[in-house]
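user: can you give me the structure for this one chain? tokens are fine.
assistant: on it. calling the predictor now.
[tool input]
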Amino acid sequence: MSKAKGGPPASGSGKQGDTLRSPMARGLRRGLLLVVVIIAAAAAVLAVRWLTSAEMMQDPAATIHAEFTLTDQDGRTVTAQDLAGRPMLLYFGYTYCPDVCPTELANISQAMDILGSDAEAVQPVFITVDPERDTTEVMKAYLGHFDDGFVGLTGTPEQIAAAAKAAKVYYAKVEQPDSDVGYLMDHSGFVYLLGPDGRYLSHFRPNTDPQEIADRVREVI
């Protein structure tokens, strides 16, 4: 008696095929795909930040400098050359920043207080990375909480991008759909000390003690 010829079940037949087509399985695959996409996006952001930091650390004096044409809190056009002649404490941030930015601006302000009369020899500068919301009026009101000597600068997105590129500063919009603010800005957190020619001298990591900032500034004024 001949045996009946058999073969693998047709594609999609049987319990295994039914399982692969089930709503739960499809949902699981979509969920896994979403996780992969989120991880890839986060990795890309971290890579950009790492590369920016690594590039800066290779030879910061040769790569970091002040180069911009922006608008100050009083509506005047200001270039990097206009601020040349004094060392500069430069920070990139934004007024809607919930924590890091006000802390760093307060640290700069305290350092200026520690410098006393020597503070006149250094120029603190705050450049926004959120020109969409940080108008001149907003910048002026915000900087009223910090040192009187601050120059606050805003401009078009293209102008801000050019200024950030010269200083090797990273920033990116992070949507917050469940928040009233709409979005936050992820950005580098260094405070730069630039020379009278606008070139890099040193930098301070977030939460650097104001006394340390003041001591370093005194070395160059």
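assistant: here you go. The first strand starts at residue 69 and ends at 72. The chain has two domains: 14-58, 62-218.
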